[in-house]
Amino acid sequence: MAVFMINMLLILAIIGYTVYILMKAIRKQAGGKCTSCDTKSTCGTKGKHFSSY
Q1: Which residues form the domain of 8?
Q2: Which of 22, 24, 46 shows the shortest CA–CA distance to 33?
Q3: Do residues 37 and 43 make contact, with C-beta atoms less than 8 angstroms apart?
Q4: Residue 19 maps to a domain
Q5: What is the per-residue pLDDT across 3-47, written as a single tens digit (0 to 9) for each?
Q6: Among candidates 34, 36, 37, 30, which has minimal Cα distance to 48?
């Protein structure tokens, strides 16, 4: 019984962390390129990002 409980806790922890990471990525993606960029405060492009050259 104790092994079952430990396994369930590990499974719940893994699933919870996976959901957390996915939600974080979805929120970052929904914000757009400039909103999600870590260097937005020092960025000199002012929204002029190009997807292809």
Answers
A1: 1-25
A2: 46
A3: yes
A4: yes
A5: 999 999 999 999 999 999 999 988 887 766 665 566 566 666 655
A6: 34
Residue 16 lies in a domain: yes
List the structure tokens of 11: 């499974």
Q: How many domains does the chain have?
A: 1
Residue 42 lies in a domain: no
Q: How far is CA 17 from CA 14, 20, 25, in A?
A: 5, 5, 12
Here the tokens at position 22 are 């996915």
Q: What single-letter amino acid sits at 1? A: M
Q: Between these two residues, 20 and 50, which has the higher pLDDT value?
A: 20
Question: Degrees (nearest 5) of the Cα angle 30, 13, 15?
Answer: 50
Give the amino acid at 44.
Answer: G
